[in-house]
Amino acid sequence: MESYIVEGGNSLEGVINISGSKNAALPIIAATILNPGVSIIKNCPNIHDVKNMFIILEMLGAKINRNIDEVIIDTTNINSYEIPANLMHEMRSSVIIAGALIGRMKKCTFTYPGGCEIGARPINMHLDAFKQLGVDIVEKDGYIICECGKLNSADITLDFPSVGATENIMLASCMADGITYIRNAAREPEIKALQEFINDMGGKIKGAGSNTISIEGPTKFHDIEHKVIPDRIECGTYMCIAAGTKGTLELTNVIPEHVSSIVHKLRGIGNRIDIDHDKILIKAPDRIKSTKIKTMPYPGFPTDMQSQFTSLVTTAKGTSIITENIFENRFKYINELIRMGAVATIEGRTVIVEGVNKLHGAEVDVKDLRGGAALIIAALIAEGTTKINGINYIERGYENIVEKLSIIGAKIKKQ
Ligand code: EPZ
């Protein structure tokens, strides 16, 4: 198992260019299945989860050529509708391929993605929506077999604004006859990015970013070129690194609107943040203040920043209270922080963090992607050396993180 060795305690300074968004790229790669042709995608992050999606598409029959600044995806010869079980388990977000395969092939078989490190991750809303679109769903020997003669439009209300369910409905309903509505839809920027991608390919989707989305089908698709939006969670993570190391960072290639809830909280704990078009300059105070956080669907404070912010406030002045409202098991990294000297108590979906003067280095284990980011932040804050095991989780979602951190003065190496 590979590890990072981090020497903490330095103030980090410099410029970080934010990569393309993992959570925008994954549904967009799935959406290329809808158009039996060529999609050119720019600013696609070179990370493990994206590589996994490419493997799945190649197993379905697509041809993929990746060069420095673009990926050329040719889905003309896709001839399979089965999502490989091993990859579905390894990366549960591949469930969004189902919507695209149902849209194009009117068939898809896949295994239950199963839970992951942060929760049970059920897909009931995805399956209920497929049924409303006219898909017959049979569960047999652990497989979910989806099939339909034709897709009918539907008026679908989600119990919860699920990002993946919203994306899957958008993908499948592009090929339904008539106008499909998604009510209580997820409003994340990645949903709006998916709408733009599909419309660039010939789609007629409106309303992404609001809680009601309409999709008019069936769609006649054509080839396109598209640039992936910047990763708002990567941006938030590096802002927490600046805040935690008493540093000064300039983040380039960002969309400030996408990180406004994170900027608001970072300003509230004492950071000076200046925004200039697609750049953010953050300058940390000597010691940050404590805060209260409740994770919410966008535009609320994102669950994907909960771990990083909790790590940050371990050395704040005062006691912080962080409540995780989206996933039921997203505190696995807390015990690792405690090994580094943090004082934190979990009560149900809330963690109470009493700020300490300093953290110390330790050997810690990563349990999930954003928990891993939290441990990197803690290691950069801590005095001494930290060994971070299980870094494959981190490299699923953070492009060139060792190189990016080294450029701003972090002492980090992979072994
Ligand atoms: C997406 O996951 C993101 N992943 C997650 O980012 C992110 O945390 C999450 O949205 C919330 O913003 C990608 O975009 C690839 P949900 P998704 O469906 O779509 C429950 C990261 O770190 N639910 O919005 O799986 C579910 O259990 C990852 O980058 C059902 O109950 O999230 C959860 O409690 C982690 N039934 C809540 O809804 C369903 O059918 C939100 O899940 C679907 C979801």
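qc> Residues 3-18+230-414 form a domain with the UDP-n-acetylglucosamine1-carboxyvinyl-transferase; Chain fold (CATH 3.65.10.10).
qc> done
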